[in-house]
Write a structure and sequence with these properties.
- The complex is a heterotrimer.
- Chain A has 4 helices and 6 strands; from the N terminus they run αααββββββα.
- By secondary structure, chain A is an alpha+beta fold.
- Chain A starts with a helix and ends with a helix.
- Chain B has 2 helices and no strands.
- In chain C, helix 3 packs across helix 6 and helix 5 packs antiparallel against helix 6.
- The chains are: A alpha+beta, B mainly alpha, C mainly alpha.
- Chains in contact: A-C, B-C.
Chain lengths: ~150, ~70, ~240
Amino acid sequence: MHPVRRQRLFLVLFIVLVSTVAISLVAYALRGNINLFYPPVEVAQGKAPVGQKIRVGGMVVEGSVQRSADSLEVRFEVTDYEATVPVVYTGILPDLFDEGQGAVAAGKLDEQGVLQASEVLAKHDENYMPPEVAEALEASKQRRMEAGQ
Amino acid sequence: MYFESLSAALTMDGHGAFVWSAYAITAVVLVGMLVAPWRRQRRTLRQLTGLLKREAGQPPPRDRSREV
Amino acid sequence: MWTLFHKFGSPPWLYRLSGSILRWLLPLTLLALVAGAVWGLLFTPPDFRQGNSYRIIYIHVPAAVVALAGYYVMAIAGAISLIWRMKMADVAMRATAPVGAALTFVALVTGSIWGKPTWGTWWVWDARITSMLILLFLYLGVIALYEAYENKALAAKACAVLSLVGTVNIPIIYKSVDWWYSLHQPASIKFTGGTTIDPSMLYPLLWMIVAFYALFTCCLLLNMRAEILERESRTAWVRRLAAGE
């Protein structure tokens, strides 16, 4: 390759390499802050600040959703299967919010370790399928569970 | 079609506004992406044709793009 | 191979080649986009969890995918410009920026509209969305940086450097959903097998991704042609073109 062009090629590679390393270091240093939410295990370990606005995310524990009879208050728990955080929220929940599904709650952790949520978002996974396929999957799962008993 | 009727396809069980506005905005942007460079090219060629005509001693052609 | 590579440095050759490609690619692309949109909107089943709102996937994902790939086109054009000082590489780099910006914008807006009925919010500062916004700023930055310089040769160099510096953002965007806790879910199309999207939905999605790649190519060629005509307007071959009109 032409020597001057080879020199410029090295310059180009140098620019890419240095910028990649620099930005990667910054991203690594900020990795805690880039996380949108605390997983329940970190809240249980006391790594989440009390009284400050944080987000906690995980799966909504089956059977944990309790709705108040006379207000929009809802209580539920989120888990990452290592720890569980109770959440209390007053307001309308997103359509996709459900037990056994992902959720991210934003709010302040109180002294008892309950998240007083000001916002609850539903998190969905990367599975896309028609309702018939989902029903068939659910039915075969039921059959396997019953066969296993 | 997965919808029973055209009106069902428009409402999409309450999600129609979201889906159709997303597609509409995308269509507008995509058309813009294609039309902008084409118009730029036409303008350059038109200006050049005018210049050539003037150099040849003739009046420049009428700007037909503004005619209805 | 090098002769072919250096042919790309010839404006009239590029202009003629792009013209003959566009003659069939442009109508095909428009057809494919309309067919794919109709397919996704009306002829695919709803999602078991998201219902009909998921149909935005057929424009959101293709726009995002091509916006990412297009950035590499811009960065590589910038590298070629820096190494070979090829003016047509500058033209290619400049031509990619507005197309990439438009596609990133579409990805962000359609994503936002999709987020409201599903997640429950129009916007959230998670890693995926924030890094896509940075991508938009990079594209807009390249456009703005070029205008900021009087000396256009220097402007092209600055834009090339900016494009190269921003390349790390692409793998960051791609891996953001795996590296950090984010609201945006992981990829459904997995290259190592185990794709988690039903075939009836996957095929129209792949169709639209290809259609958007074709659209990117068309817009890139159209932008390059317009730029070439402007730059070369004093040459004999362009004058012959204008006279033939």
